[in-house]
Amino acid sequence: MVDISVHEQLLFLEKQLLAHNVRKSKDHLDKILADDFVEFGSSGIVFTKKDIIDRLSTEEEIDYVLTNFHTKILEENVVLTTFEIEKNAGVKYTLRSSIWRKTDGKWQIVFHQGTPK
Predict the structure, then answer these.
(1) 96 close to 112: Cβ distance less than 8 angstroms
(2) CA geometry: angle at 75 spanning 8 and 93, to 5°?
(3) Tens of pLDDT along 19-39?
């Protein structure tokens, strides 16, 4: 069973990463994304932290709905999150997974993958 506080913390952070104001903020993204962050996008493209920060700063506003959120502790201070995303009121669904690492008391995302549903 996952500690509910870890579950709630990571749900909050995942929702933040979907919020338009956070996605536009290079400073906020720099704090949430680990320096060694990698994403396997639903498009099949691999992105680094720099790629994501540059790309999201110019992204048009998109409404996301996060559902079916789960957490699984992989080891102390490393957690896998899985969930589904609905983009623009049902236009596109994706399955998502992230790996979060807690360093110096702060959660950062180190890996993310989106898979079309």
Answers:
(1) yes
(2) 50
(3) 999 999 999 999 999 999 999
- Domain 4-116, architecture per CATH: Roll (3.10)
User: Is 93:85 a contact under the CB 8 Å cutoff?
Assistant: yes
Beta pairing class for 46-48 and 33-40: antiparallel
Q: Say what the pTM is.
A: 0.91
Convert 97-114 to b/e letters by CB count within 10 Å (16 or more is b).
bbbbbeeeeebbbbbbbb
Residue 6: pLDDT band by 50, 70, 90 thresholds?
very high
- Residue 56 carries which DSSP code? H
Residue 58: half-sphere exposure toward Cβ, Cα within 13 Å: 4
Tell me what pLDDT residue 1 has: 53
Burial of 86 (0-12, 13-18, 19+ CB in 10 A): middle
Radius of gyration of the chain (CA): 13
In the chain, where the domains are located: 4-116
